[in-house]
Structure formats: structure tokens, C-alpha cells
Amino acid sequence: MSETNVMINGIKIGVPEGASILQAAEAAGIKIPTLCFHPDQEVKANCRICVVEVEGQKNLMPACATKITEGMVINTTASRVLEARRMILELILAHHPQDCLHCARGGSCELQQISSEYDVRFSRFPQENAELSLDHSSPSIVRDPNKCILCGRCIECCTETQTVSALGLAHRGFESQVVPSIGQDLFESPCVMCGQCIHACPVGAISVREQTDDLLDAITDPDKVVVTQIAPAVRLAIAEAFGAAGDQLLMGQLVSALKMLGFDHILHTNFTADLTIMEEAQELLERINHHGTLPMFTSCCPAWVRFAEVFYPSSLEHLSTCKSPQQMFGALVKTYWAQKAGIDPERIFSVSIMPCTAKKYEAVRPEMIDSQYADVDMVLTTHEIVRLLKMAGINPLNLPETEFDPWMSEYTGSAVLFGASGGVMEAALRTVCEKVTGKPLEKLDFVEVRGMKGIKEATVDMNGTIVKVAAAHTLSKARVLMEQAAAGTSPYHFIEIMACPGGCIGGGGQPLTLSNTQRARRMNDIYTEDRSRKLRKSHENHEIKLLYDDFLHEAPGHRAHELLHTKYSLKKKNP
After folding, report:
1. 320 belongs to the catalytic site
2. pLDDT tens profile 115-148
3. For 325-371, what is each residue's pLDDT tens digit?
4. Rounded to an integer, what distance in angstroms lies between the CA atom of residue 185 and that of residue 187?
5. What is the CATH number of domain 3-77?
6. Long-range pairs for 433-439: beta carbons < 8 A, 24 or more residues apart
7. Would you call 504 a catalytic residue per the annotation?
8. What is the pTM of this model?
9. Is residue 367 among the annotated active site residues?
């Protein structure tokens, strides 16, 4: 690719042809503030906070939307540039609540950071807050429209990346608002509660619905035994939140931290991730061998399941009947584990720690009571656990390791893979291939379904039966594959869907994730942990074998079907 030479603040630099001024400045090590710009989205040029001076141009130009030309001379520090940026900030702040101390994004708000950098301590314009009602209708997400700065990032994420269109722009001029579709509450819209809008929003207009106070109440209740499960993608993001690389935090250190917070028993969602593979593999083989509905789609991701229920209700037979690992765990912890531990299930308060906001919705679905109790009593996101740890002054990186509690904690490398897009598919193939061939796999890594590509596919030869599989992340890609299945033209037998970019490592409940580059790093950490496990195939998990011997007895079987499987139905709107 040819280079274009430009001058930025007296620095001559060559950048790829077609680059924007913003990209050229970044290459030169010069920071230009942005609010509506997002590295994984289309350029909008809504906020104009990135304006710069370009020689020969009368008006200041938005750096995000202005392409460089040969010999262009750019000034990002001219007095009129800095004054224009300050003026724009003051205009935004004149319509923005000044409650940073109470805001969910306090300390991580992009508007707050830029205001601090530009020393905007007050506004020359009168404060005119809209005083709009907060939207608490969703079990997963809270909307505060008063804080919206109309950047459009949440709309693009919801409309283009997820193709849900639960959010849109209403009214005009000063009356403009981002609202749920058809002006309803968020829970009445097609929202699938993936939470990607939380990461897209630069301020506190959209946030996780927090339940940390409820957890503290449960921990201090002497009649409750608080048992938690930890999803595979959680550890990596907690390490980042404490300033370390994902692989620097050991699972045993995280167990120690949770014990210090007051959890009575610490178990692992990875145990039921392995169990999900056992049940899902059996279901897939049944469908292939007995002409069942194909392709079979995974059902681990609750945002994807909700998407299918709303947009493709006539094709729900394609979804696996397996519950997600979270819900399998919830059903077993109040039956199997309660028996093993000798604890009355009525006393068990089951908490899951998830990278996902949609898991909060999944836990309150009316189908999820197969243990005769709510399978999961509370879902805390990684974001909430980080907040609790910091509130308590606990840095898990400084702690010694503690062992998990027994019966539902052992896991294999396959379970770890659930945290990354393509991981469920890869884990399933390891077990399905060995079940069909009766031989150990020579190569465990199905690299064809790894990475950040939107749709990944592979072809597997199982004793002469050619099985085609695919893995996709984001709901725009899921829509492509579901359209094929609905039309009867899908070439695949088995399809994995994850709603969030990169899979669970990029979930809506993770601490703020800035880009797909960050998600890709977490994904590589998932593969590293998989390689480090002594056992890497779900059917090798000793505690899973014990579960079938002592409790479930067979796969598929009556008790397994009763506790571990469910069905899905048309949802015109949220219940």
C-alpha cells in the first residue's frame, strides 16, 4: 500500500493512503480526543470534539472523518482548536448531569476524562438537564437517558453488529433522544440483553443492573449457604482490572479472594461446561444418526437464544435442548451437590459470576426451575465482582491459592474454551470425534474455528461421515446462518453462536472492553490455559464420570433430560 506524506504539528510522517487525520495523528504519537468515534464502528463525526486545523481550510475539520492528502499540513494544538474543543465540551456538559460521584461510569467515563484533560471545571452555558425517567425495566441493563450525549455508538452496535435495532434516535434538534424501539421500555423492545451497548456507550447512559447490595445481604444471612460458580472468561478480565495480564491471575487466587468476600463454597462453571459437551455431543449424534433437525445450533448463549425466539420462532427446533452451563450448574447444585455436601437445598443461595449481562435474564426465565427451586438465585457480572473486590480492598493478585470445593469443580481444557468464540464447537468436536471413531484424536486443536473472523467453518471426517460445522460471533453473523437454516439451504450439521464479539471474553458484563484487539488478546489467553490443562477433553473429567455413575446414570437419560434440558418458544416481547 502506498504512503501519503503529511505534516502534523511540525512532524513529517508517512501514513497509508486513505487514512484519516485521526489515524495519522495516532501514528505520530499525538492524541486527539474523541467521543462518537469507536475503533470497531463506522465514522459518525457527530460530536466534533476531534476538530483540527488544516492549512488551506477555513473551518476546523473533524479528524475522524477527514482523509489525509499528500502534503497536508495539520495543527492539533492551535489556540482556536483547543478553544473549540473546550466550547464543545461545555455545550455537552450544559445538558449532562453533574453527578459523577454517583455514576456507574465514574472514573471510567470518556467525557469525564476529556473534561479533566481540558481543565473544564465549569460551563459558560446554563445547566439544562432533561430530567427523564430512568429505565429499570430490564433485569440486565439500566438506561439513564439524561446522560446520553447522542454519540450514536449504542445505536450502531445494536443495529449493525447485532441487527436487533432495540435502540434508535427519536425526535429532532434539541429534543433528540436515543430510545428503545417504538418508544417502549427496554424490556418491552426486542432487546436481547447482550450488553454490547454498555461497552459502546462512552458515558453512563447505559450500565449493568447491579445486585451487589443483594449479594452482601445474602452473605450476612445466617440461614443462607452462598455457593458460587465462576465462568471461564471471568478470571482474565479481573486480572486486567487489577493492572495485570490475564494469565497472571491464577484460579486459586481468585478462589481465595471470593472466600475473603464471604462466599461459603466456590465451584466452577467449567464443570458444567464439560457436562454440556457430554449432553450436547449425544444430542448431535442422535440427530445425525436418526435424521433429526439439522443443523443443530448451540444454546449456551442466552442473548442468542433470546434473539432466535424473537426473530426466528419458526426455526427453534434447530436449537439444542441443552441448558447453558450456568443453568445446568444451578439445577445440579440444589440436587446432586446438595446431597453430596449434606446441605438442605432450601438454604442454598446459588450465585453465578458471569461475563454476560444476558445471564441475569436467563436466570429469571420461568423455565429455569427444574430443581424445584430457582436454579440460579443471582447473577453477578465480572464488572460487579471487580467493584466488590475493590470495595473490600482485596487484590487477588496478592493472595495465595485456595482449592475449589469438591464435587463440581474439576474441569478440562475443553471447558476453558467456552470463553472464546468457536470454543464450544472445538470442545464438542473433541468428544464427538472420539465417540464416533473410538480412537484418540491425533490433533486436539481445531484451529479452523478459532479467531475473530465473523463466521468460521470446518469439515470433519468421522469414520467416513463428513460433518460440516460453523462457529459465529455477533448476531449479525448469526442471522446469516439462521436465514440459511430457515430456508433449508444450510450446508452445516452443527453451528455454534455467541452473541458477543469474540464470545464470552467480550461479554456485556465484562469490565469495559475498548476494542476487538483487546478481545483477541483474551482469546489467546483462553487457548493458552487450554493447552496447560492435564486433561483437555470433556469426557475425561473424573467428576463428570462420577456425576453420571452416582446421579444421572446415563446420557441421555430421564434425570438428565429433566434437569439439564429445556425448550424454547416464541417471544413477541419479554415476559
Report:
1. yes
2. 999 999 877 888 888 889 999 999 999 999 999 9
3. 999 999 999 999 999 999 999 999 999 999 999 999 999 999 999 88
4. 5
5. 3.10.20.740
6. 433/460, 433/462, 434/537, 434/539, 435/281, 435/285, 435/539, 436/285, 436/462, 436/463, 436/465, 437/462, 437/463
7. yes
8. 0.94
9. yes
- On whether the CB atoms of residues 478 and 307 are closer than 8 A, the answer is yes
Across-strand partners of 350?
Answer: 227
280 catalytic residue (yes or no)? yes
Say how many C-beta atoms besides its own lie within 10 A of residue 497's C-beta: 30
Burial of 398 (0-12, 13-18, 19+ CB in 10 A): exposed
Q: Which residue type, as a one-letter code, is found at position 278? A: M
pLDDT at 174 over 80: no
DSSP state of 78: -
Catalytic residue among 299, 320, 324, 409: 320
Which of the following is catalytic: 53, 110, 240, 280?
A: 280
300 counts as catalytic: yes
d(CA 305, CA 284): 18
Helix (H, G, I), strand (E, B) or coil at 20: strand
Q: Is 283 a catalytic residue?
A: yes
Dihedral sign computed on CA atoms, order 392, 395, 396, 400: negative
Catalytic-role residue among 44, 323, 334, 359: 359
Architecture of the domain defined by 100-208:
2-Layer Sandwich (3.30)
- From 240, 279, 362, 410, active-site residue: 362
Q: Are 91 and 128 in contact (CB under 8 A)?
A: no
- 359 catalytic residue (yes or no): yes
Q: What is the pLDDT of residues 251-300, one digit of tens each?
A: 999 999 999 999 999 999 999 999 999 999 999 999 999 999 999 999 99
Instruction: Single out the catalytic residue among 279, 283, 309, 496.
Output: 283
> Active-site residue among 47, 64, 151, 300?
300
Distance between CA atoms of residues 544 and 538, nearest Å: 8
What pLDDT does 535 receive?
Answer: 97
Give the domain ranges of the chain.
Answer: 3-77, 100-208, 213-564
Average per-residue pLDDT for the chain: 94
What count of other Cβ atoms lies within 10 Å of the Cβ of residue 10?
9
Q: Which of 504, 529, 538, 540 is catalytic?
A: 504
Average pLDDT over residues 213-221: 96
Separation between Cα atoms, residue 306 and residue 301, nearest integer Å: 9
Q: Tens digits of per-residue pLDDT, 511-568?
A: 988 788 999 999 999 999 999 999 999 999 999 999 999 999 876 678 999 999 998 8
Task: Indicate if 309 belongs to the active site.
Answer: no
| Residue-wise DSSP of 252-286 | HHHHHHHHHHT-SEEEEHHHHHHHHHHHHHHHHHH
Continuous segment of H or E residues that includes residue 114: helix 110-117
- For 97, which DSSP code? -
Class of domain 213-564: alpha beta
Angle formed by the axes of helices 234-241 and 251-261, to 10°?
A: 80
Cα–Cα distance measured from residue 242 to residue 390, given in angstroms and rounded to the nearest whole number = 9
Give the helix, strand, coil percentages of the chain, each rounded to 5: 40, 15, 45
